Amino acid sequence: PYDLLLARDGIDPGKAVYFEDMAKNLLPAKEMGMTTVWVHTDLEWAQAGRDDPRIDHQTDDIVGFLRTLANGS
């Protein structure tokens, strides 16, 4: 499904950021070249893969994360 979305909407994966609350779901996006952000959750089933080095960033505050990016920090 990731490749279909990218192709359909003409998205360059090297310029895309993929947010997900299930850590393991970030891995296919990373393999396609996207920057990955795991949104922390306390749910045990969402934790699988959270320590994978292919996850670029982790946050529990999407708005704060985006604000930091927008401010160039």
UniProtKB/TrEMBL annotation:
<dbReference type="InterPro" id="IPR036412">
    <property type="entry name" value="HAD-like_sf"/>
</dbReference>
<protein>
    <submittedName>
        <fullName>Pyrimidine 5'-nucleotidase</fullName>
    </submittedName>
</protein>
<dbReference type="InterPro" id="IPR023214">
    <property type="entry name" value="HAD_sf"/>
</dbReference>
